[in-house]
Design brief:
The chain is an alpha/beta fold. It has helices at 41-57, 69-75, 92-95, 119-122, 129-132, 134-141, 171-174, 185-196, 240-253, 279-283, 323-334, 346-349; strands spanning 3-4, 22-28, 59-64, 81-84, 98-101, 107-113, 146-153, 160-161, 166-170, 200-204, 221-225, 228-233, 264-269, 308-309, 313-318, 339-344, 360-363. The longest helix is centred in the first third of the chain and has 17 residues, at 41-57. The chain binds 6-aminohexanamide.
Length: 368
């Protein structure tokens, strides 16, 4: 495996869309008891359900610690490849490489810098050095070269690609103080275009209310096809999400993509009843550095946009809300050839993300 100092764009590589064919998916077995309540058991059940669905149509690799290997092996289907790897947590979307592909079908990984969503400014845990080393190790595991982009802090959850030259991101995240404060917006934009082999960045102003990642795009807006997106939405003007979603809608309605198309926006409701931490859930989370990681009543960043697209399905978070069904119906319309798989996701959401945040796709490739 080579560490590359050139740029993906210069080498003819770009980021495919998630809805293009996958070779496989990467996940990381949940273990930290200050992220995952009830000693991690509740989240593990949800991860296993997701793993079973993904491994039906693609190669799934799950990274796991030495201490959890036996457990993970016992609960995951035999077709899942387990690989021992030291990590700080289980957010494969953010710590695994972003893969880029060329016209010959070869793929390479991008090894972004990772600082736990904001480093010492407003990061979510310390230390994060094991997570920062995960992307390169995965490239090694897959025999794929890695672009060294460690000087640029970025998580995979903060970008979406349409596979045709357009990238979606949020200003609140990419311009946050804890990531690349020495760079201007124009410099960050040109870095993204160069690394992702893209021509246009659509900057959404905001994300989901109370999203502790500084509002990753993958929780608020996602491509469902080139030129088409779903946007998290509420009609309730008294909900703090309204202003955030409205600002994104205004941007999208005035935007064109890299191919000059207007963007078709489908509104995907957020849960009607805000999803908030209970006393009991808080009592099942370990402290971090002597402090609770969640508080009773805290509103979680619940969004149906945090779905994951596999080769034959779309895994959609469910929160036990009236809007669960509506989200399923809208996404079924967006993905008519895939099976819609509803997943009870509260136990993942408590960790601070959802199904998209715990998965990273590996595009189908030709370079074995
Ligand atoms: O991508 C994500 N949504 C990860 C969130 C991490 C939260 C850590 N508690």
């Amino acid at each position: 495996m080579r560490i590359l100092k050139s740029s993906p764009k210069a080498d003819g590589f770009s980021m495919p869309a998630e809805f293009e064919p996958h070779y496989g998916t990467i996940m990381i077995w949940p273990e930290r008891t200050d992220s995952w309540q009830a000693g991690g058991y509740a989240a593990r059940r949800a991860f296993v359900k997701i793993a079973k669905i993904i491994s039906r149509s693609e190669n799934l690799t799950v990274l796991v610690s030495n201490g959890q290997y036996e457990n993970a092996r016992a609960f995951l289907p035999p077709e899942v490849r387990l690989c021992e790897c030291t990590t700080d947590d289980s957010w494969a979307r953010d710590t695994a490489p972003t893969f880029v592909k060329n016209d010959a079908g070869e793929i390479r990984g991008i090894d972004w810098g990772f600082n736990a969503w904001g480093g010492l400014e407003d990061g979510l845990y310390f230390p994060w050095d094991n997570d920062n080393h995960v992307a390169r190790k995965i490239c090694d595991l897959y025999f794929k070269d890695a672009y060294n982009c460690r000087d640029f802090i970025l998580e995979g959850g903060s970008i979406h690609s349409d596979g045709e030259g357009t990238i979606l991101t949020t200003e609140s995240c990419l311009l946050s103080k804890g990531r690349n404060p020495h760079m201007t917006k124009a410099e960050i934009e040109s870095m993204l275009l160069e690394c992702l082999g893209a021509e246009k960045i659509i900057w959404l102003p905001r994300g989901i209310y109370n999203d502790e990642t500084n509002e990753h795009v993958d929780n608020v807006c996602a491509f469902t096809a080139p030129g088409e997106v779903v946007l998290a939405w509420t009609d309730n003007k008294n909900d703090p999400q309204y202003e955030l979603s409205k600002a994104c809608l205004d941007t999208l309605e005035n935007a064109t993509d890299a191919r000059g198309r207007k963007i078709k926006v489908r509104l995907l409701p957020i849960p009607e009843v805000p999803v908030c931490m209970t006393e009991e859930e808080c009592s099942e989370l370990d402290l971090w550095d002597g402090e609770p990681t969640r508080t009773p009543g805290e509103r979680l960043a619940a969004s149906y946009v945090n779905f994951y697209i596999t080769n034959d399905s779309v895994l959609v978070p469910q929160f036990g809300d009236k809007m669960d069904r509506t989200a399923i119906e809208i996404l079924a319309e967006c993905f008519p050839t895939r099976k819609i798989e509803p997943i009870a996701a509260r136990d993942i959401l408590i960790g601070g993300g959802n199904i998209h945040c715990i998965t990273q796709q590996v595009p189908k490739f030709s370079n074995l």
